[in-house]
Design a protein that fits this description.
281 residues; mainly alpha; 0% strand
Length: 281
Amino acid sequence: MKKLFAIVALVAACSFAMTQNVMAQEEEAAVEAVDSAAVDSAAVDTAAVEEAAPQEEAPIVEEESEGIHKALKTKFIEGGADFMSLVAIALVLGLAFCIERVIYLSLAQINTRKFTADLADLVAAGKVQEAINLAANTRGPVAQVSRKALECLNSKDQNDIATIERTINMEAEVQGSYLEENCSWITLFIAMAPSLGFLGTVIGMVMAFDQIQKAGDISPTVVAGGMKVALITTIFGIVVALILQVFYNFILARVEALTGNMEEAAQELLVMCVKSDKCQK
């Protein structure tokens, strides 16, 4: 019995010791949890305070940007008034001829197929004089070629097909020369603008060497002025040539389109003249 009581007492003591151990561990864990929660709440409060506090805005530095026209004016003056003025004159005159050609070619453009169809209807109905009046009141090279052909058809001594065809070819050459009028001036200014720029470049180099000779030193500050003039004149000359070249290519495209319309109309005119009763076969 004593041994049994001793064993029970030992087991109870061990159980009590283990219970105390577990309770101590649970209390430590609870304390750690409370501490971590307090730390988290403090961090949250700090973040809230930082968010609530007014933030200082960084000063915005606005860069002053010059206008394009002002920058061009500045570079124009830096490039030297002599050659830069010549390049500007080449640009103005070249653009004047380009605008004149664009307006002329735009007014010369008509609906060729509708126009020739109307002429064919009038000629087939025997109303050649009305067809001539229609062509005379219509602008453009196609109408002028048609008018000449119909006048030959309406005449008594030139209404054979060979004469009509020759008249069409001659009038087409005349109208083609009108279309290409003043284009040679545009090509002249296209070639002149970069040439003036290169001439300014050479003169700028000569100025740089003169400054080197006077100073007796080849430092960058001595040659910077002459080199700057040289580069600016070259840039402006090339830019002017590029602008005029774009307009010139557009003009050539319109001329080719109108020439194709004249060729198409010439074929239609020959066909309607051959079908007409007034034409001598």
